[in-house]
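Researcher: Going back to the complex we discussed earlier. I've cleaned up the inputs and rechecked each line, so this should be the final set. Can you rerun the prediction on the complete assembly and write out the structure?
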Amino acid sequence: MIKAAVLGYGTVGSGIVEVINTNKEIIAKRLGDVLEVAYVLDLREFPGNPVEKILVHDVDVIMNDPEVKIVAEAMGGVEPAYTFAKRALENGKSFCTSNKELVAKHGAELIRIAREKNLNFMFEASVGGGIPIIRPLIACVTPENILEINGILNGTTNYILTRMTEEGLDFNDVLREAQQKGYAERNPEADVEGYDACRKIAILSSLAYGGQVDFEDIHTEGITGITPVDIEYAESMGRAIKLIGRASNKDGKISAMVAPMMLSKDSPLYAVRDVFNAITVTGNTLSDVMFYGKGAGKLPTASAVVSDMIEEAMKYGENVKILWDEKKLELAHYSEIENSFFVRLSKGEDFDEERVVKAFGDILQVVLESRPDEYAFITPVMSEGEFLKKYESFENRLNMIRVG
Amino acid sequence: MIKAAVLGYGTVGSGIVEVINTNKEIIAKRLGDVLEVAYVLDLREFPGNPVEKILVHDVDVIMNDPEVKIVAEAMGGVEPAYTFAKRALENGKSFCTSNKELVAKHGAELIRIAREKNLNFMFEASVGGGIPIIRPLIACVTPENILEINGILNGTTNYILTRMTEEGLDFNDVLREAQQKGYAERNPEADVEGYDACRKIAILSSLAYGGQVDFEDIHTEGITGITPVDIEYAESMGRAIKLIGRASNKDGKISAMVAPMMLSKDSPLYAVRDVFNAITVTGNTLSDVMFYGKGAGKLPTASAVVSDMIEEAMKYGENVKILWDEKKLELAHYSEIENSFFVRLSKGEDFDEERVVKAFGDILQVVLESRPDEYAFITPVMSEGEFLKKYESFENRLNMIRVG
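Model: Rerun complete. Updated structure for the full complex:
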């Protein structure tokens, strides 16, 4: 029997206990041993809940029990998760987590400590919920020079954009409805401003490029500025607007960004609707592969944590190599990232088309019959810096969206 | 340095050498050592090709070189691949392969031998080309009771069905064109009759359920009977016809099948076009995850083989547990598998609608304006056996397709 502890009995934490109980037999068969949750740590009481029997309020009970070999954390936030992770590893326990803040901030250090202790620090559930993406990055695309990762990494924003697209609704109306349905938080900032996706692409790019990508370095834009008119334009071009987390390696120049992008039908991400997440990985010899599924939810996320617990149980005392060095990876500055851009200008009386062409070069004009008062176009590929300088010289600018 | 040998210098074999040469540095970084192809086995000569320097015609040279730790096979066919795999393992070499015939037929035995020798037998490229699916099944969905696997596992047939759908073309015309373009073999039987997909779903179901699923036991239908009219009907219902390999576990009753199915837009496989492959895995707590990409092609397939070589190099002398027992898994008989069915009958003068309703129960009639001479409908869910008995009692039957 292998004893484990679960830190936090919220949505994911209680899901972990549920997955292990529900699939006891199949887990025992695959693991070749019984995985038992010996403790659950939570400050709250759960009167009448079977978890009471294994509930503890003091983390020391877990840390000091030498029989506990695996600690799974689902509390969220950097602290006290970080302190608990270090203590667990230093006390001879492998650690796994669904906590993207913890992983984005301290992943590299915790991976190093686990390696030094011949233990493991795993985090499959920290990106994409139940979608296998961390393990495939570590163990499957190993021969690849990873040219690009593109991800729809946040279910709430994808749900909002899908509703806006399919029903022509306004951002605020859909957000309110999503909050009522429980698809969006009461404080939706982390989702709609892209902060959640930013931490996730920081984790993926750290793994893809083997060094520490600080999420603070990643230029991040959310979806609050996307309007039904933008979506109308996108649809007229056979495109869809998605919030994309992107990491790329162009001739050794690594960059990362989160922003709404207009995807064409050729992108496998184009058809990813509602709360679903998906991540494409582009390798120089592999070309594109995509991983798709529900990016959140109690049981799918818990299942990913339990897959880590099973691997850690199978490999207790043996470190699985993860290339994510503590050394900071210098990203190319945001202004150097290249893209083409969709631009909308208002067409007042003194509108000067020639000035636009002079500024942006060979543009592709997009005409919407319903918007005679606008001048919209797609620019050639140029750097963000170059684009912004040009774009900001127009006082009549309405919006701009990257073309993905 | 870790020495490897490649058996077969055809499309995939030469791709393996190319991937290793192209991505030498990144592979060395991830592996922590240099992976070197010391030998390539092929009966042919390749005058002027750099492979000449490492080309051998006698497999004994490889088997007898104790420095060769890894053998990658890309010859195809059961023999001599099977003999070589056994010899390699018995001579202390881990073995990996892209060869679905070998894996479907002898996978369980080779996995056992590898385990006994503390070596590995790996086969990521045998299903889905470059798409990571074998490793996710072995290492990611470990907590899951796998309820169902559905796969578009053959690129040629998916290409043909896509062209038929999008251009209203006839099967034979598209096949001929696909052959001219090199997307289909001159002898297309293995693809269009579903034999290729059958071996692949046999491999996936063996891994999902931990025992030997013989491909000969899997009811297999190809796409040669699909007509533009069937596709017209499917489209009128917002559905797409895809060749699906399916394995499922219903209350412990395991079944597998390959057949064209009509998928609704709700299926993530619906939008998988052209030569792309995709596999959904449905777990009882995970729900659906999908893996998507190019299911064939020289470099993507080779990349998957090289990912096996890298893992085998990292874990030389240590067996990675794969649950695929030699004991045969008894599948539920084909006639017990449940589905609903789309049926087309010709509507002669004496057509008797009441007889249809009496036979099939609550049906959903599908009317195509362009087909006044047909009576088409979807049946309730019933077993294949029950369905066939009813269906075959109608002399005026035109076609039937499962509703997926």
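Model: Worth noting: The mean pLDDT of chain A is 97.
Researcher: Good, that matches what I expected from the previous run.
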